[in-house]
Design brief:
The protein has 298 residues and is mainly alpha-helical. It has a single domain, classed as MetI-like fold (Orthogonal Bundle), CATH 1.10.3720. Helix content is 70%, strand content 0%.
């Protein structure tokens, strides 16, 4: 049985949908190259972090004094440190710590900051008190506040996440507060308030959808900053314990041999730089893509 078509009509070729999809992909790549590059680099780092046990060559914590401070070779791709541990395996496992801390800090700061900013934006009575506390936290450099918080606790990944999240959520709170103040006077929000809708429902139904794009971009920069600060804390001995392989710990252990064995510091520094660069590129690309003014130009 043959398929018939109306007079003057022709069947659409079967390859049209794939062509359209390829055209859309090419257009997206052409318009948003920073998202593509940043997302690809970040995807590689996430892949390395997830599959570190299979990509690594040895146990990153295995000590072999007879093999200490060996140059990069076919057996030890990134060389060994002062205790004979394989730097390549330690760098791979360090991606787990850096990415885990960055994602966790971005998530905690976004959730807590959104809640505080929404309450301050809707409650005129609490606004002044909450924002003065936020201003006080923001007046302290984030890394100094994180060091002070870590001095009060023991070294662990969980405490590092909390210490790095505390200086970040005031910035998110101020951002969300400004959005709430601009949306609070809109008719759809006033109508929801007049109808007796509870504040959590207003935030979920009206505030978050309008603030999601800005919050997503802010989260990327928060995560990148957290990765750098985690490396700083570990480098000065106030971050993750020395038994846990992290890029900051690896660089701290190799600084004494920098002049004669710079590769101990070089490899983790390169991985940290590429990871932070990928997150920043992704954030810049999302900001340009989600900004309606820039979207019109593109």
């Amino acid at each position: 049985m043959s398929t018939t078509f109306p007079t003057g009509a022709a069947p659409l070729p079967e390859v049209l949908p794939p062509i359209r999809r390829r055209g859309r992909v090419r257009t997206f790549i052409r318009r948003h190259p920073t998202i593509v590059v940043g997302g690809a680099l970040l995807g590689v780092m996430v892949f390395i972090a997830i599959f570190a046990p299979w990509l690594g060559t040895t146990d990153p914590t295995a000590i072999a004094p007879a093999k200490r401070i060996r140059d990069p070779s076919a057996l030890y791709w990134f060389g060994t440190d002062m205790l004979g541990r394989d730097i390549y395996s330690r760098v791979l496992y360090g991606a787990r710590i850096s990415l885990g801390v960055g994602f966790a800090v971005a998530l905690i700061a976004s959730v807590v900051g959104t809640a505080i900013g929404a309450i301050a934006g809707f409650s005129r009575a609490l606004d002044a008190v909450i924002m003065r506390v936020m201003d006080g936290l923001m007046s302290i450099p984030p890394i100094l506040l994180a060091i002070a918080l870590m001095a009060l606790t023991r070294a662990s990944v969980q405490n590092v996440i909390i210490a790095l999240a505390v200086p970040e959520f005031p910035r998110v709170a101020r951002l969300i507060r400004g959005i709430v103040l601009s949306l609070r006077e809109q008719p759809f929000v006033e109508g929801a308030i007049a109808a007796g809708t509870r504040l959590p429902r207003i935030i979920l139904r009206h505030i978050l959808p309008n603030a999601f794009a800005v919050l997503l971009v802010q989260a990327t920069f928060t995560g990148a900053s957290a990765m750098i600060n985690e490396a700083i804390l570990s480098f000065i001995g106030a971050g993750t314990p020395p038994t846990i392989p992290s890029w900051g710990n690896i660089m701290a252990e190799g600084r004494a041999l920098w002049q004669i064995k710079p590769f101990i510091v070089f490899f983790p520094a390169i991985f940290l730089s590429v990871t932070v660069l990928s997150v920043n590129l992704l954030g810049d690309g999302l900001r340009d893509a989600l900004d309606p003014r820039l979207a019109k130009r593109l």
